[in-house]
Amino acid sequence: MRMLGAARIAAGLVLALVAAVGCTGSDDGDDAGRTNPPASSSAASKAPSATPSPSPSSANPVSIPGLIARKHSGSDLRLGAVRARTDAYTSYTVTYEANGLTISGLMNIPRGKGPFPALVLAHGYIDPAVYTTGRGLAREQDLLARNGYVVLHTDYRNHAGSDKDADNDVNLRLGYTEDVIGAVMALRSSGRAEIDPERIGLLGRSMGGGVVYNTLVVAPGLVDAAVVFAPVSSRPAENLDHFQRRNGDPIVAEIEAKHGTPKENPEFWEQVSPLTYVDRVTEPLLLHHGTADDTCPIAWSERTVADFEAAGKSVEFVKYAGEGHTFAPRWPDSMNRTMAFFERHLR
């Protein structure tokens, strides 16, 4: 991928920040710490992992092994209406097929001669009842497209124009992982001249960070690199307690009626955690988290990084002192690091 001038990046940051007015965050501060990746002798292969996959007959379909055992599909990427034209890219509504469902989304295609590297963006939790296509990562979509990436922001099932999946919530929203895998496969098989099928990465925020974790363990070799911002816990039982149980969400009772509580059925809850299968990960991961995040505690990321490191995985962890969940004052710094990371690994 061609190197980009500092002036172009700075201009893109200004435009993206203007587009993101309304986001809030904590006071600025210096990095509190950072974990660098272990040395790697070679880039991750796009071939499937050699780790044995569970057999379809033995795996609980509502589990990481169930997703590993499933044959995933993603195809039929279709451009719809033009949503916006800028000096740097054109934004389209899109649909694609993922494991038999039609999923909607938004795609920004840079101006100029491709093929361009591509990124699939996985947004955080937004109530599907109020969600609209492309909502959730608007400033990232803009900045990344201005810097030469095709950006596909998936809406997920049950969102915007996507097909419905009535069981998705009670099944811990594992369907979102299928939607992201399908998005990458649809990009790769599209045949569009603007898209380089050999250079694809993932970026997820908050809940979308958890979707990225799942994707890395379910489909090693699918992408070249991944970045997460302020991710949820990699232990779903912890997310259930933190976000749903304490707020009286009635879906908790349905989840535990179907799957059991963590105390009653610890095996199930271990099998829905990506950390149980972290040894399958083959791609480098960059993780950003603010020390003042009161939505997703930074301790969650510290524990996740420790497990990745213990498994010998390539992980970079950047802490932002005083920064909150939405990344306001340090967002430009975090995106400069993100683009430098993708520049190294998507080539």
UniProtKB/TrEMBL annotation:
Pfam families: Peptidase_S9 (PF00326)
Entry keyword annotation includes Signal: yes
Disordered: annotated span: 28-64
Compositionally skewed regions (Low complexity) per UniProt: 37-64
PROSITE patterns per the UniProt record, alphabetical: PROKAR_LIPOPROTEIN
Alphabetical list of InterPro entries matching this protein: AB_hydrolase_fold, FrsA_esterase, Peptidase_S9_cat
Molecular function GO labels: hydrolase activity
Signal sequence extent: 1-19
Peptidase S9 prolyl oligopeptidase catalytic domain: residues covered: 140-346
Family under the similarity heading: Belongs to the AB hydrolase superfamily.
Name assigned to this protein: Alpha/beta hydrolase family protein
Keyword field: Hydrolase, Signal
E.C. code: 3.4.-.-
